[in-house]
Amino acid sequence: MGKTGLLKPGPAGDLASHLTDAGPEHPWTGIRFTSSWNSRTPLGSVLVGPVLVAEISADVAQDHGVWRQPLRYERLRLDAAQVEVPRFGERW
């Protein structure tokens, strides 16, 4: 699970049509998100069920162990199941 930068309208609409609302047991319930590293203004957010697989790209640069750039959403992978994808840092 993670967050990306803003999505363009086309990809955002496609992705939204496949999302389902998360229940109260979602691991991020109660977490507040901001629009940038230095912002304290919380964003409105809707947590969704962690059941879809998306292809992302990332800049690996870090500052003090924190990623410098947000992830970039590439596409939804309806051909892949959650159990087929290794967790971050795992190898197959």
Number of strands: 4
**Could you report the average pLDDT, rounded to the nearest whole number?**
84
Shape: globular
Query: What's the total helix number?
Result: 1
**How many angstroms separate the termini?**
19 Å
The radius of gyration over CA amounts to: 14 Å
The major β-sheet equals: 2 strands, antiparallel
Helix-strand pattern: HEEEE
Structural class: mainly beta
Helix content: under 10%
What is the spatial order of strands in the main beta sheet?
1-4
Low-pLDDT residue spans:
none
Percentage beta strand? 5-15%
What does this molecule look like?
With 92 residues, the chain is mainly beta. The protein is built from 1 helix and 4 strands, in the order αββββ. Strands 1-4 form a two-stranded antiparallel sheet. A two-stranded antiparallel ribbon has the order 2-3. β2 and β3 form a beta hairpin. It is globular, with a radius of gyration of 14 Å.
Q: Notable features of this structure?
A:
single chain; globular; mainly beta
What secondary-structure arrangement, pairings included, does this model have?
Blueprint: H1 9-16, E1 54-57, E2 62-63, E3 66-67, E4 72-76
Antiparallel strand pairs: 1-4, 2-3
Task: Write a brief caption for the model.
By secondary structure, the chain is mostly beta strands. Helix content is 9%, strand content 14%. It has one helix at 9-16; strands at residues 54-57, 62-63, 66-67, 72-76.
